UniProtKB/TrEMBL annotation:
Cofactor(s) required, per the database record: pyridoxal 5'-phosphate
Pathway where this protein functions: Amino-acid biosynthesis; L-phenylalanine biosynthesis; L-arogenate from prephenate (L-Asp route): step 1/1; Amino-acid biosynthesis; L-phenylalanine biosynthesis; L-arogenate from prephenate (L-Glu route): step 1/1
Gene3D superfamilies: Aspartate Aminotransferase, domain 1 (3.90.1150.10), Type I PLP-dependent aspartate aminotransferase-like (Major domain) (3.40.640.10)
Superkingdom, natural source: Eukaryota
A UniProt-annotated Pfam family: Aminotran_1_2
Keyword Flavoprotein: no
UniProt family annotation: Belongs to the class-I pyridoxal-phosphate-dependent aminotransferase family.
Alphabetically ordered keywords of this record: Aminotransferase, Pyridoxal phosphate, Transferase
Any one Gene Ontology molecular-function term assigned to this protein's record: glutamate-prephenate aminotransferase activity
Protein name (Swiss-Prot/TrEMBL): Bifunctional aspartate aminotransferase and glutamate/aspartate-prephenate aminotransferase
InterPro entries: Aminotransferase_I/II_large (IPR004839), AspAT/PAT-like (IPR050596), NHTrfase_class1_PyrdxlP-BS (IPR004838), PyrdxlP-dep_Trfase (IPR015424), PyrdxlP-dep_Trfase_major (IPR015421), PyrdxlP-dep_Trfase_small (IPR015422)
Length: 395
């Protein structure tokens, strides 16, 4: 549409939505589709958290909060970041938003100017590149390999940095590969970041997306980039409640960083959405009150995710031609089906790429995968059913 801004025209439409629409049509016609596409825990929000939200409504706690979030929640977030992540922030260095997605977008908008480069290791959460485009910046993708568990090679980072580099996005644990960056690798990345000329100005250059920090499988452990020596000033830390606390619909996330940048993000938010939902913020305080790393409630969900991961890694491991890197965190499995590309599937035609493979799998086995990755979060479906579906396309 020529009446739209070029900013919108350059945005990529979501492939997930296209295949989800196809699946919805199938479900409506009575086909039992197994959905392995949306990044949502299938658990209910833990009762204590939900009750805090309901109490907020009953108490009439339904008015606007400060733009940056309530002092109560920001103080609880500071306490969490200190205790669990070893990073010290004061409440004026925290901005609570309507989900980590908003926190990330505002950070990209606040830091990047047109023409700046946003460095993103692949495989990446699809919104990172589009957020860069919304800021008129250019996404620069760093390749990684399944044989190295998708860990970023510091040499590749070094080779791709230019005078236009402005922001490096690190998601750990990552969506979609479940990659957990070991502390040693983060230290190597920190050294490169510290040596880059554009980074000599004291401003943040690393956007650290830690939304999956609690969904992690031993022996992997989470390291916050801002906790590394010299990195506090250079890092914007993003986290939220959606994944660990099964609170995707409550829309609550946050950004922590040097005050100047957090205030800039707050300025954007004040003109876009204002403070996050008052009810959700009360629920967020209750979530952080569950104890270290979310206590028992979160541990129970992580245990279930781990069982599902093990089951899927084993099941897909038995398929010919499929390469797997066992995810160390998050609840996704990122499979390499490339040996199927260029082959003919009976009754379907050419499997050109991941998109046509996804269409084929939906057609043939009623399993919905996202464009490339898929999530292991709908495994409450009876296992036998999944096995029957899988056996439909394994040969
Ligand atoms: N970051 C990553 C890597 C994600 O996968 C998601 C959600 O899918 C988000 C951020 C955003 O989370 P929310 O906006 O629900 O807090």
């Amino acid at each position: 549409d020529i009446s739209l801004s070029p900013r919108v025209s350059s945005l990529k439409p979501s492939k997930t939505i296209a295949i989800t629409d196809q699946a919805t049509a199938l479900v409506q016609s009575g086909v039992p589709v197994i959905r392995l596409a949306a990044g949502e825990p299938d658990f209910d929000t833990p009762a204590v958290i939900a009750e805090a939200g309901m109490k907020a409504i009953r108490d009439g706690y339904t008015k606007c909060t400060p733009n940056a979030g309530t002092l109560e929640l920001r103080s609880a977030i500071c306490h969490k970041l200190k205790e669990e992540n070893g990073i010290s922030y004061t409440p004026d260095q925290i901005l609570v938003s309507n989900g980590a997605k908003q926190s990330l977008l505002q950070a990209v908008l606040a830091v990047c100017s047109p023409g700046d480069e946003v460095i993103i290791p692949a495989p990446f959460w699809v919104s990172y590149t589009e957020m860069a485009r919304l800021a008129d910046a250019t996404p620069v993708i760093l390749p990684t390999h399944i044989s190295e568990d998708f860990l970023l090679d510091p040499k590749i980072l070094e080779s791709k940095l230019s005078e236009k580099s402005r922001l490096l996005v690190i998601g750990t644990p990552s969506n979609p590969a479940g990659t957990v960056y070991p502390r040693k690798l983060l230290e190597q990345i920190a050294q490169i970041v510290a040596a880059h000329p554009r980074l000599l100005v004291s401003s943040p250059h690393v956007l650290s997306d830690e939304i999956y920090e609690h969904i992690i499988y031993a022996p992997a452990t989470h390291t916050s980039f801002a906790s590394l020596p010299g990195m506090w000033e250079r890092t914007l830390t993003v986290n939220g409640f959606s994944k660990a606390f099964a609170m995707t619909g409550w829309r609550l996330g946050y950004l922590a960083g040097p005050k100047h940048f957090v205030s800039a993000c707050g300025k954007i938010q004040s003109q876009a959405t204002s403070g996050a939902c008052s009810i959700s913020q009360k629920a967020g305080v209750a979530a952080l009150g569950l104890g270290y790393a979310g206590g028992e409630a979160v541990a129970t969900m992580v245990k279930a995710f781990k069982e599902r991961r093990d089951y899927l890694v084993q099941t897909f491991g038995e398929l010919e031609g499929v390469k797997i890197s066992e995810p160390q965190g998050a609840f996704y499995l990122f499979l390499d089906f490339s040996s199927y590309y260029g082959t003919e599937a009976e009754g379907f035609g050419l499997i050109k790429d991941s998109s046509s493979l996804c269409r084929y799998l939906l057609d043939k086995a009623q399993v919905i995968f996202q464009g490339v990755p898929f999530m292991a979060n709908e495994m409450k479906v009876e296992r036998g059913l999944i096995e029957r579906h899988l056996s439909g396309w394994s040969n």
